[in-house]
Amino acid sequence: MVQQLSDVLVLEEGQTPPTGTITPPRQPKWLDTFNYIANPDQFCRQNLTKYGPIFKTSVFGGTTIFVGSPRAVQMTFNGDLNYTDIALPATTMNMFGEYSLFQRPDLHRQRKSALSPGLTGHALNSYTLHMNQAIARGIQDWIPFNKIALYPAVEKICFNVLTPLLLGIDLNNSEFFNFKGLPVSSSTELKARFNTFSNGFYGLSKWQSRFTTYGRGLKARAELIEFMRAVVQRRRAEGGEINPTADFLSMMLAAAKENPNEVFTDALIENQCLLELWASHFQISGLVSSLLYKLGRYRQVLQQLRQEQTQVRGKQSNTSSIFSAEQLKQMKLLEATIKETLRTLPPSSTAKRQLTKSVVLDGVVYEKGCSLMAEPRIAHIIPENFSAPDVFAPERFLEESSESKKYGFIPFGGGVHACLGAQMAILVTKIFASHVLAQFDWELMGDPKFVQFPIKRIQDNYQINLSKIV
User: Fold this and answer.
1) 141: DSSP letter
2) Can you list the alpha helix ranges (DSSP code H) found in 239-265?
3) H-helix segments, 97-149
4) Domain architecture of the chain: domains with CATH
């Protein structure tokens, strides 16, 4: 019996594929994982040129089929519980924890729907004032300097923006007061634990030891969960009414209080606090620094964004330190430029899925047991999705001339596992860029080198020349 989901032909066990079908080209090679980790952009581009947007690799073990064409990406994203399961390495799944959205695919939709109100809609709009204040305060530290190390300067501010929004810990006041009674004593210590935790996701050894990145990452994870547990306990001990739009943790605590036997167990709340701060901090820090680099390189776009800012804000442009939600919505070119930055410098791949059944799409058979990876570094540079893909052209994302396609532009993944914090990432980046554009001019000091893996970002030592606009 053949089951058909949209255009995907799902083959039952033992069923022969239709006549004329082919398998994806290229034979997996034993060095694929190392070559991919060393330079994912180069790996994808070279194989795309030679084999097209669908090809076999052995990246992260077994046969992993990279896909970049829209229909193959759609097939990859939409197969959960039908013909795919999540296929992340066991070490990575352990780092995500038992209550991540990648665990229990049968509960994924329920959990994601429950978490979404804390990172979208009214709650997200309510975060705008804090974002403005924290960013405006943070970039004041740049004023005395005529050059800054770009990524570290951005990363410091992003951490101070996101920690209050996700955990409700105000880093603007005394750190002794904020961290009193908690197992982590300062924001510096907390950030260091997150760095160790993040590195543990990509340790290639399963050895749980202080001598391996995986072992150190698991230890940092346990310490961070202990910290999150203490934060939750302190918030509950404070009593009083909980405002569900105050921060992400408040949303979960309010929901748990209203429906104590539903989604929000203590274990899930602790795990989601950990994962959302980890994911959003590194992704947003990388995106903001990449955007500022792109604007330094493409000065005409920078000037166009300043013109847009003046048109939207009028006489307020140099007098108000707040960019309202309504003003930000009107900055269409800024959002298009952020998207073009994500297209040209996608931060990472999407999650692997393993085929639980063989499927056929457009004459290609994808065999049971293989893994699928929808790769932005392929999807974002094929002319099928974007004309002149090597040209930095933000206008392609403007509504009247949009070339973006649902399954051709995938910096935040897609389908049921699309990034929960994508809207927040765009909003923080818009506010950050708006403040920098209003207050500073900057020039690049050559081209940066990038950390390639696990998240693509500018290396710490890259500096830009900076001057305050008078």
Assistant:
1) G
2) 248-258
3) 105-115, 121-126, 128-139
4) 3-468 (1.10.630.10)
One-letter amino acid for residue 332 of the chain: K
The two three-digit tokens of residue 421, written as one number: 């914090």
User: In angstroms, rounded to a whole number, what is the distance separating the alpha carbons of residues 195 and 156?
Assistant: 13
| Number of helices and strands in the chain (H, E) | 18, 14
pLDDT of residue 19: 94
CA 106 to chain centre: 23
Beta-bridged to residue 443, according to DSSP, are 465
Instruction: Select from 172, 195, 193 the least CA-distant residue to 182.
Output: 193
- Given CA atoms 362, 365, 369, 373 in this order, what sign does their dihedral have? negative
Q: Are strands 147-149 and 457-458 parallel, antiparallel or unpaired?
A: unpaired
pTM listed for this prediction: 0.94
Phi-psi region of 396 (alpha: psi -120 to 50; beta: other; left: phi over 0): alpha
Q: What DSSP line would sit under 370-421, residue for residue?
A: -EEEE-HHHHTT-TTTSSSTTS--GGGGSGGG----TTT--TT--GGGS-TT
Tokens of 317: 């442009």
Residues found in the chain: 470
Q: How far is CA 381 from the centre of its chain?
A: 19
The pLDDT value given to residue 2: 43
At 362 the pLDDT is 96
Low-confidence ranges of the chain (pLDDT < 70): 1-6, 172-177, 204, 315-320, 399-404
Q: Position 154: which residue type?
A: V
Q: What is the pLDDT of residue 403?
A: 53
pLDDT in tens, 148-201: 999 999 999 999 999 999 999 887 666 666 888 889 888 889 999 999 999 888
Residues 6+ apart with CB under 8 A from 174: none
The residues that bridge with 54 in the sheet, in sequence order, are: 67
